[in-house]
Amino acid sequence: MIANGQSIIQFMEQLAPRQYAFVDDPIGLQLGILNKPVSQVLIALDVTPEVVNEAIEMQAELIIAHHAIMYRPIKHLRLDLPAGKLYESLIKNDIAVYITHTNLDVAPGGVNDILASKLSLEHIRFLQEVHKDQGIGRVGKLPEQQLLSEFIKTVKVAYDIPTVRLVGDPNRMIRKVAVLGGSGRDYVKAAIFAGADVLITGDIDYHTAHDALAAGMTIIDAGHNIEKLLKPVVASFLQDKLSKSGYVTKVSSSELDTEPFRFL
User: Does domain 3-104+228-252 have CATH number 3.40.1390.30?
Assistant: First the structure.
């Protein structure tokens, strides 16, 4: 039995309930329809033209992605521009796009728990509470103190990244670690308040880095793309739910690297 798209999203929202999303975060169905049979689902971090082609090749009828394809109201739909071409390709191939963003960041078992688990953190709690019983980011402890320069090697292996940007002294000892997938510049103070020795996040700008240095806060900027680690976890979750419910729908994790930066 092939699952209906709406049933697939009901399973998805068991993992990442809509009510966990931040206000005005563009989550949910962004393009296409869900009321149709879906034999193949593709889980992606970003919906790029290459990811759309990947979906077309596997005959996927639904892409579930972390980053929205529409962040702001659309003023035009021009097929001679990159965004318009992307939408055109999705529509012509009857591929729906559903977004699960900050609700997946907040959710237990979601992005930030995945990132924390990759580092074997213990005694994990929220970095900052955003709902009555849930929070954004995670804070935990390493099994024992480590030299920061050695810990960075662990981070690069765990997150499958070639390099990081460091704010702080690589020779300091650390144990308490805060981690927040995506852009974390607004959570530096939360990491300080939580007593973290180091914050792992992405998209740290120049002035935020200076403020962190002045406050004695160490930051490992591992990049926004570390959120790619959600793909196999979400795919496995959905496949398990569908299979146990008797559906033959297949769920695949995108194999494409959507990191826009190249490290030379």
Answer: yes
Q: Which CATH number fits domain 108-221: 3.40.1390.30, 2.70.70.10, 3.40.50.2000, 1.10.10.10?
A: 3.40.1390.30
How confident is the model at residue 131, as a pLDDT? 80
pLDDT at residue 51, rounded to an integer: 98
pLDDT means over runs of 10, the chain (264 residues): 98 97 96 98 98 98 98 90 96 98 97 97 96 92 97 98 97 98 96 98 97 97 98 98 98 98 92
* Phi, psi (deg, nearest 5) at residue 238: -65, -40
CA-angle at 14, arms to 12 and 18, nearest 5°:
80
Neighbours of 42 (CB within 10 A): 29
Task: Write down the pLDDT at residue 165.
Answer: 98
Length reported for the chain: 264
Residue 36's nearest CA partner among 99, 98, 120, 82 is: 98
Tell me phi and psi for residue 138, to 5 degrees: -140, 150
* Distance of alpha carbon 181 from alpha carbon 97, whole angstroms: 22
210: how many CB neighbours lie within 10 A of its CB?
11
Question: Contact, 28 vs 63, CB < 8 A?
Answer: no
pLDDT at 50: 98
Among 11, 82, 20, CA closest to 247: 11
pLDDT of residue 264: 87
Q: Do 92 and 6 form a contact (C-beta atoms < 8 A)?
A: no
- Distance CA(138)–CA(135), nearest Å, equals 8
